[in-house]
Amino acid sequence: MADELSVGRGAVLAANVEDMARAEAAGTRGAMLDRLRLDDGRIDGIVSALREIAAQDDPVGAVARQQTLPNGLLVERQRLPLGLIAMIYEARPNVTADAAALCIKAGNAVLLRGGSEARSSNAAIAACMLPCAPMICRKPPSASSPTRRASMCWSCCSCRTSSTSPFREAARA
């Protein structure tokens, strides 16, 4: 995912320019604009964060605690995926990549809903990362459900509803 985002940097930065112009036209100022802004340094930070997440040990299946009861029964507390994690966040495009990577690393599906101010940036980040979904899914998508290919690992609501959504393109494939 980090490599794909690094390669797609130009598209993400162009999308962020659109978001910044829309936010400024809407009267957004100060810290909110700063959180929305992406540049090469911030994209490098996102790429670095994705690499750090990828380098972490796989938490799924790790035994957090183990004990043997007096009757000999072995009881373990094991880390397992929660299933689906839904996250709503404001105009912080970096959260799209960070949240997706963390949830997927832990074996969860993730539904992301970023602020409308970052709509284009979030869609561009999702488009960069989407090609990695088939490689990182723990369970391959069902052949009878082609739309699951894009949605089973993670999804970004703001780009799923777009007519140029990478999720729609993947569903057509």
**How does the helix and strand content classify structurally?**
alpha/beta
Shape: elongated
Report the biggest beta sheet as strand number plus sense, adding barrel if it closes: 3 strands, parallel
Low-pLDDT regions: 140-173
The end-to-end span amounts to: 20 Å
The CATH architecture assignment turns out to be: 3-Layer(aba) Sandwich
Write down the secondary-structure element order: HHHHEEEHEHHHEHH
Count all strands and give the number: 5
Total number of distinct structural domains: 1
According to CATH, the fold-level topology is: Aldehyde Dehydrogenase, Chain A, domain 1
Structure commentary:
By secondary structure, the protein is of the alpha/beta class. The chain has a single domain, classed as Aldehyde Dehydrogenase, Chain A, domain 1. Helix content is about 50%, strand content about 15%. The protein has helices spanning about 1-5, 10-25, 30-35, 40-55, 95-105, 120-130, 135, 150, 155-160, 165-170; strands at about 65-70, 75-80, 85-90, 110-115, 155. The chain has a three-stranded parallel sheet with strand order 3-4-5. It has a two-stranded antiparallel ribbon with strand order 1-2. A hairpin with a 5-residue loop joins strand 1 and strand 2 (about 75-80). Helix 4 (about 40-55) runs parallel beside helix 5 (about 95-105). The protein is elongated, with a radius of gyration of 18 Å. The chain starts with a helix and ends with a helix. The model is unreliable at about 140-173 (pLDDT under 50).
